[in-house]
Amino acid sequence: MNGIVFQVASLGGAEFRMDEWGVDCVYSATQKVLNAPPGLAPISFSEKAMQKIKNRKTRVPSFYFDALELGNYWGCDGQPIRYHHTAPISSVYALRSALAVVAKEGVDEGVRRHAENAKFLYEKLKEAGLECFVEQEKWRLPCLTTVKVPPGVDWKGVMEEMMRQGTEAGIAGGLGPTVGKLWRIGTFGGNSDKTKIEKVIKLLADTIKRKSNI
């Protein structure tokens, strides 16, 4: 196996070429860049990975997560379909509509837009006196930016006040060991827009001034 790629926050917004790069398994989600409702987890296996799955010597512990049963249910193996689960039809149709939006723009154009707007976001952060948590730009994700919480700032209070200003201005905090150290700003899909980015950074900068303990 050449690796499993977690692409939840970047599918459709960052360059990724599974076959060309020799990736054996990639899984994602629908609620980020695709802007579809949450609840589905697109997954893809290489031929090499499928052979590994088909030739495993022990049964999959969970029937629900058996890739062969799932593949059969979705008509991937050419065999008569066996019942596996009741599909969330509404979510599937919602995903279809979201993918139509992606197709209309074009995958490559969408990737270019996310990269361009990420650079715009970095510039606006710098103008506001804020720093990216990931120092080297080449390691940053164009769809999700982490921002250092300045010393003496009530990081949670900043988020709460921004949320009260409206959903377009919402940001999130760090997770695990980064709690209290950073904020997360998602520029997924339709939110990868210069007007929206400028609005969020201005509100963030203004709120920081009011919530500073210095």
Automatic annotation (TrEMBL):
GO terms for cellular component: peroxisome. Its cofactor is pyridoxal 5'-phosphate. GO terms for biological process: glycine biosynthetic process, by transamination of glyoxylate. Gene3D superfamilies: Aspartate Aminotransferase, domain 1, Type I PLP-dependent aspartate aminotransferase-like (Major domain). Residues 8-166 form the Aminotransferase class V domain. One of its GO terms (molecular function) is L-serine-pyruvate transaminase activity. Keywords: Pyridoxal phosphate. Belongs to the class-V pyridoxal-phosphate-dependent aminotransferase family. This is Aminotransferase class V domain-containing protein. It comes from Heligmosomoides polygyrus (Parasitic roundworm).
